[in-house]
Amino acid sequence: MASMIPCHKKKHVTQVKTDFAYHHKHVVKQQHTERKSSSHSLSQVHGHATEAMAEPAYTIPLFRQRTAEETEEYQRVSNNVGKGLVVIQEELHRMRMATKAQVESLAIKKEVRDMMTKRVELLDDHHKMPDFLLALRPHTVWEKTPIKLFCTVEGHPRPIVKWYKGGVPVDPLSAPGKYKIESKYGVHSLIISRCVVSDTAEYSAVATNQHGTATSKAKVVVKRPGGTGESSHLGLVPHLTEIHHSKLEVTLLDQFPVSFGVEGTSIKLVCTMVVVPDLPNVPPLAQWYRDDHLLKPSKLAEMSVGGGAAVLSLPHLAKDDEGLYTLRIFTKDGTAEHSAYLFVSDAAPSVAGAPGAPMSVKAYDINSDYVLVAWKPPNTVNEAPITGYFVDRCESGHDTWVQCNDAPVKVCKYPVHGLSLGHSYHFRVRAVNSAGISRASRKSDKVTALDAVENERLQVVKIEGRHDIVIKEDELEGYVTVPGEPTDVHASEIFKSYVVLSWTPPRPRGRAPMWFAIEKCIAGTGAWQQIIAAVKPHSPRYPVFDLQDGQKYQFRVYSVNMYGSSEASAPSEPIQKLDRDGVPSAPGQVVATRNTKSSVFVQWETPAHQKNLLGYYIDGRVAGSKDWFPCNHKPFRHNRFVVHGLIPGETYTFRVQAVNAFGLSEESQESSPLSVEPALGKGVEYATPSSPYGITMLNSDGSSITVAWRTPKHCGGSKVNAYYIDKRDADTLVWKEVNMSGVTDRVCTVDHLTDGTFYEFRIQAGNMAGVGLPSAPSAPMKCHAWTMHEPGPAYDLHFSEVRSHSLVLLWKAPLYTGASAVTGYLVDMAKKGSSEFVTLTHEAVSHRYLQVHDLHEGENYVFRVRAANASGVGKPSQLSDPVCAKALPGTKEIVAGVDEETGDIFLSFEACEICETSKFVWSKNYKPVGDCPRVTASTKGRTSRLTFTNPDKDDLGKYSAVVTDTDGVSSSHTLTEDALNTMLELSYNIRNPVVPLKHGLNYEVLEKGHVRFWVQAIKLSPSVSYRFIVNNKEVTSGEGHKISHDVATGIIQMTVDLFTRDNEGTYTVQIHDGKAKAQSSLVLVGDVFKAALKEAEFQRKEHIRKQGPHFSEYLSFTVAEDCTVMLVCKVANVKKETSFHWYKEDEEVVPETPPNVMSGAVALPLPLFSRKDHGVFKAVLSDDRGKDTSVYDISGQAFDDIINAIAHIAGASASDLVLQCTPEGIRLQCYMNYYTEEMRTAWKHKDSKIASSEKMRIGGTAEMAWMQICDPSDKEKGHYSIEISDGVSTYTKTFDLSGQAYTDAYEEYLRLKAAAFAEKNRGRVVGGLPDVVTIMEEKSLSLTCTVWGEPTPEVTWLKNEQEVTSNDHTKVVFEGGKFASLVINKVTPDDSGKYSINVRNKYGGEFVEITVSVYKHGEQIPEAKHARPAPAATTPVPAKTPTPTPKSPTPTPRHSVKSPTPASTPVPKSPTPTPKSPTPRSPAPKSPTPSRGVKSPTMSPTPRFMKSPTPPRK
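^ that's the sequence the OP posted. Answer follows.
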């Protein structure tokens, strides 16, 4: 190949030079034309300005009459503006003259070229210092207008001109697009594109050669128009001469790229530009187009021009917005345009698998109550096919959407009927498939329902050619009542889903409002049926849906108004609903060709049957994948399309579907697979590379200069294998070749130069296609020997691993080292366009790379490097290319791993983009590894692997990989010692394979007492082999042992049927699986073996036990919601004959409900559980097959657990504390489901625990816990609480016994205490009286009783409620204040009756009744219950004592006891109702009379564990 290079060089250099000459000639000609045009334009502007200055004085309109002060202000402003116009006129005249001079100077260019050789010879003989033939001139310009400073310099050697602003060098890179420095044919110019006030300064051009320096200076003044940024009176400033936008010179800079958006999001298309002159009030005219349709500003498309940019904002993206966007700007030379495609993909569906939203919804055939809505179907790639669409409508100004069709319509058209005349509507569409309903489309433009033929019914009559009279057709018809019949009934839309009828309205029609009636019949039958419309049709359109498939129908129409109906129209032709067209046929052959590194050009043959084609959908698929992806989301009209957004280097296939109103066609055949690479040479196999750039000087010794350059940005499709250098003196135009044969390095030393002479260089790059265009000439470089002690500049600055916040900068060492070796480097960084550099390295770094962190994502940066040695810091390198801190899409990092097959340790890197000429370059510590024997690099597709031969600590370091001929695809990975050790261990395991074990050898005891020894591997193959060794003896599967394995689970196991003491020892399993081996052992001796043996014996017994009836769950306890404790168990393997018995302490317990073993569960309730239930409970289950026993010991912790469970339920059910007063004190009570003293409860007063005492008594009943304050005082006031603990939680109830609550309680306590005292000391009958006395006449009756009272009570005897007094027959005795008696001598029947004793003192008393029955001798003893004397007995009755018999032989009812209570000390009512005597005597209440020896009811305190009367619980 090297031998072929000179031939390529020779062949293509001539061509390049010829092309360059032609191009140069064309450019000069074009410049001449442009300058003529510019001169003509300047003349026109000058003319306009002159006319503006010559206009008559400004006349103020009457409606703008001003005061004297306003007029004076206006004159002042006008004068200032007039002066400004004069300045503009002078400047325009000067620019015209300068431009004319430039144009005339170009006329002598031929003469200059003819004389150039002769001039060079003369100049070679004559040395001259620089001299300005044409010096700089001062300028005064308006803000935001351009300016050009130029001068002409002569001298030999050719001088170098540098520009300065205020003594500071002008750097075009500091403000890209603002400054432009040119040097052509001895004319040097500085162009400032957009002047601002800060550009006001003194500018100087400094020309230098080896013989001296010359300087030319000029003042530039930039003025701001009067009033800008200041307050001014509107209307006071006269208008300047209008500058039309077509006179502006516009240059597009940063143009918007191909963009991608998603439905529902927003996007901006921005194109920056330079406008000359840039006037704030005269922006350029910019128009935006989508698919060649002009866009207008709206809420969905916001446009702005100004500030050096044209912006199109799409705030609410929909697929309707997809298309080719074009920005067209009108300029002085015509138009400047830029186009790029915008792709809008579907938003996430509301239901997985639902289709995308339809698009391009529009309304057609608009009538007074009818419109036809049409739309485009969405693309379905991986979703289920679309089965139909729903159409929704919404009145303008409302947010409520109404669904128009009940069933999905299958075609992309739908007639909407029933609209209101004059109302405006929007429409939207939703697609339906088997998965669900799509998102709604973008709503249509507003549509107003109007009568389409209304305008046709108007006539305009002109009178005398000046006046128009509008006459309605109704007025010419005369007085018409009934309208005529419609005509031309036909079907305007025929589909399988519906038919739209159309007709011509009648003439005449009359003035009354008219509607239509429609009839149908099956064709040929004449059986007409009226079509019932939900809304009367007023327009000559009507959709019919309910037609039968396969039938042909005829229709006729009537016109109807308030006066009647017309005759029927002529019947229509037979109409049958069907889909006439259907979907198009599939497109033809699909061909994909390369376009760019991320796009492909796809074209295809149109379908044979297009059937009203709407466009095409293109789908793509990555090679090897089954899933297709949409390339466009809106039907594309043409049969060629550029698919963007592809992954560079990836291989794709494509297919196409045609689209019409009926849906999508069948897919076309797939295209051939195509790898995404840039197109080369516009159809040629290879193209020449682009120009190198960035030529910099690295060294000079007085006779040679060493230069370096940067690689071309585009290689042309093949590797750049040669560079060619040309040189020339800086003051000549003739280039001379430096090397006839190409050089491969980007550094070259050019020899045989003249000391002190300035030289320029240019470079050309060559590849297989030839030599490309030359680079731009370098800056002039002076050939003189470098003698400085500091090093020269570093060079070849490039980047690697560019990420959002970091990058790696690399460079090469300077060729000129200075007086001593280079010791380090300093790196400076600045933002693009800024001259403020920041030094990143506080100390010089010795290596030639630097990791830069803390960058801002999306920001552009430039870098420079300065080398340092012992003498100091050398000159900085050439600035690097600007780099944007942003990772390439799809960037991946280097990963370290171990090959699962070979065990090799490797680093792998997958490139996110690649091309055919790309190569992976691996480096260690940013030094290429090359052919290092320690590593081996291999590449497969887009992935490269660096494999370590014999890795050790010497291989530690930072490894990086760079992919050539890409946009900087690179990555790095630091190999640490820990990571290497981990991979070495894994590599050893792979190279020395072992069967990986998930679990080592282990054992478990199974049912029946069998013992299973098992080991589990992570993975086993079907060819695995193994053996078990017990105590150094191999065991095989046979009697007593079962050995097996399962490949799926990786388990190898051995089961010992009878495990005995002989099985103690060491167990080992050895596994062989291919080349892999594994061994695992288990030592089963000592305590471990004893535990296993015990468990095996237990399981054997359990197995035997379960052969008969047995407990599947042993005894345990549960606590019900009512706090009843239940001992429960579950039984199994039982039958009807199985018996079940409960025992406590070996004594059988017989529950109320016999246990039912057939239910599988048995329970023994223990109500009111307390310490009495301590003991051992036993359940016995038995039948003829065996017996099983379960024991539960309720003591110790078990008892505490039960109490805690009761406390948990009781505490949760506890009520709030309630107050109850008693004669002894104040009682606080807490009701709960159950209470027992064994529960852990605590009463507290003011957070201090209360102990039970005589003062504070604590107790409870089964339903409540209480605490009583005996004889309370003010000390007992305060906050009281009860805490119920279940061992885990504590339930607290509180009561505040203070304030009014305490006062009320204390008063109640005093009342009850007094009542109790009165009850205790009142008069009462202690005992001795019977309830009933039956006595024979002539006997003596003695009623004697003991009474008590303090003070001594008074005693009164009564008979039939009449007081009894003492006499001979009746004697009343009261002895010692204790004994009271009533003696009746010789009773007679008259003595029968009710006797009572009334015992009373000041605290109250008691009233006791006795029934006395006297019967005669010989009579039968009467029934006591009748309470009357018995008849005389016929037989004698033995004599009885005066005292009555203790008990009658027949039952007698008890008599009531009346206990009168003093009013001052009322006694609480008894809980039972009080019966009264049948013959009451006194108003005092009466209470039941107790039998003899029983006390009457008293107000004694409630005993412990007895519920006292309390208010009902809450």
